[in-house]
Amino acid sequence: MADYTASLRRYYVAYTAGFFLFILALAVLERYGMPPRWIGYSFLFLTIFLYATIGVLARTASVSEYYVAGRRVPAVFNGMATGADWMSSASFMGLAGTLYLSGYQGLAYVLGWTGGYVLVALLLAPYLRRFGQYTIPDFLAARYGGNTARLVGVFATVLASFVYVVAQVYAVGLITSRFVGLQFEVGVFVGLAGILVCSFLGGMRAVTWTQVAQYVILIVAYLVPVTILSYQVTGIPVPQLTYGLALEKVQLLEEKIFHDPAEVNARRLFRERADGYYERIVTLPGSLEDERQRLSVLINTLKSDNAQMREVAAIERQRRELPTSSEAARSYWDTLMRQAAQRGAEPEQHVTPYPGPGEAVSDTARLNFLTLVFCLMVGTAALPHVLTRYYTTPSVREARSSVFWSLLFILALYLTAPAYAVFVKYEVYSTLVGSSLADLPVWVSAWGKIGLVSIEDVNGDGILQLAELALNPDVILLATPEIAGLPYVISGLVAAGALAAALSTADGLLLTIASALSHDVYYKVYRPQATTQWRLVVSKSLLLVVAVLAATVAAQKPATILFMVAWAFSLAGSAFFPALFLGIFWKRANAAGAVSGMAIGLLVTIYYMVRVQFDTIPWLGIHGVGMEPWLGIQSTSAGVWGVAAGFVTIIVVSLLGQPPSKETQDFVESVRYPELDGS
Amino acid sequence: MTPQDYWRRNLMMTALLLTLWFVVTFIVSYFARDLAGISVLGFPLGFYMGAQGAPLIYLLIIWWYARYMNHLDQEYGVDDSESDD
User: Fold this and answer.
1) What pLDDT does A312 receive?
2) Does B16 touch chain A (CB under 8 A)?
3) What ipTM describes this predicted complex?
4) A2-31 vs A36-57: helix axis angle to the nearest 10?
5) Are A215 and A223 spatial neighbours (Cβ–Cβ below 8 Å)?
6) For residue A617, what are the β-bridge partners?
7) Where are the alpha helices (DSSP H) in A357-472?
8) Closest CA–CA distance from residue A672 to any residue of chain B (Å)
9) Which residue spans traverse the membrane (chain B) (predicted)?
10) pLDDT one-digit tens code per residue, A57-100
11) Residue B69 and residue A126: Cβ atoms within 8 Å?
12) What residues are paired with A471 via a beta bridge?
């Protein structure tokens, strides 16, 4: 075992050194005139080729290797693999942006996505490892005796993981299309190939070793740009320690910018525009026809005044884009009203917790913060693709220390994300805001072309006010190399890191879905007599089917993708956490309680999400189902109700029924502690 | 030296550490507005706890639990690892 770990360490040290040499070589080539496009291609194809090589080398035909990597992944490496498995494109690209846009409120993600590991370490990982089977539904079936619990578990696994995997494949499409100029749909399928080469031949074994490789790339890519930026701003290359200094400067700039008269005026203009949209919405349907006529009159006057063609064309486009039905107009103007209102809102200071006018608004913000933290934590401790990773360590002892390593490797990114937000904010406030629109830096227009940065000179003074600048959260991380004035090779590196983050998470999720279907449904329920070889054939075919399905859905560019990721946590948390936790810590919990608790927890969460988030679902023909949120809690925190309902249901139903059998109680004992002498 | 004993000590430690987890997560965040006046390394304390303090404490909690349980395993002679590290 010690030899095995040592040689693994040698391989990965050599690999990391090789990766640095590769970056250096590209940097030199760039200086000698290698075009950016080729740098992008080099990063894309070299990294995918690397993952493919590992995937092919780790191919296997053994069931234990395929599902749990032979249970001989040392704690440190399992920690790295969990880190890559866990940190998706939402963490890599979205987190820094969310922190930039919402300041203190964004810390809910940092807290939730790290604190969940305390629950994993203390309440689940060691016990699942001692149980030592293949999937989470396996545990539910063993503890709650029977296939009903297993099938409910499979349903929840597939539901939560599929939503999540679509988001990852979507991100792959975005990255490849932005950095190497592939068409979005082509990018999705290139990414799909990258995912499949890792998991198809070698299952968990291949996924584990590619995830370790992907972790190295993603963390290097995340740390390099912000470290250089920190050095430029403060002279010390440790962003996690120095961003306090930048934060103090940001606070001074906020004081100055927020009260600037031009700023106040720009915000007022945006608010007036929002009021205008509100006016139109309440006077529907008449206002739609009025608006069409107003634009037509405007076009005619412009034409008769011999105005510039560009101006006329812009208004004509506005008229063309007007919705046709009053229902569509409502949602169209509603979106525009919200955008304008957001730009016109009083800006909040970065460090202010729970901002808002008045105590009540602030208290609701606090409640939403706390419930979101809770949902993300419980979801972390319930997402099957993460929990399965703790089946792969050689022992319970290694499982415990593996959670420590996992969190350590994850913190390397999560402690850095707030620094990104602050340094970029400092750059934007100190150099961008207040500069002339005619000479903005190149990155603004480059990212503006694909709609991630938008600038509107609402007060027409030719100077950029903060209110006139709208940034998409993803751009914060992607544009940092350019903001810091770094060579293109660093941008390529960031793209490779984002790709690694998305691919590694997608690998883990796809394998989890395929395992749940092939192992739990096909082998355990449908055909228990199936041969080993046949089970792997089924699993591999399902992997292919699910992957193609995910890519097909992602290619449709579903709009609510970011919401769906947050929902995956609430769904997984409410379905699994109460049943897993009580299954280990409360012997009295019985099958009827667990099954009804999982089902009701899941249903309550879905019910709350749907009714708070949507008023109409056109493709199901449902209208007017929207409701006021309970206690003002948003749909992303729906799991707080589902988890509570799950706990209550399991306890009440279990107490009403018979206690579980002697075998089940013995099973719980066997999971809780090892065979002791004299017991 | 009974299994019940082992389990009871495990539960005590789990409860203790979960309480710590609860305090640094929910209690501290609940009072974040009141902690804004105190400054650490240039950060208001409430912000610092969310951005770095609490995550680092989580890491310590997990490290401590693994250490404690590994010692407990050895004490009860049930260490299941085959490696010597």
Assistant:
1) 80
2) no
3) 0.91
4) 160
5) no
6) A622
7) 358-380, 384-387, 396-414, 417-427, 442-449
8) 7
9) 12-33, 45-66
10) 888 778 788 778 778 888 888 888 888 888 888 888 888 888 88
11) yes
12) A453
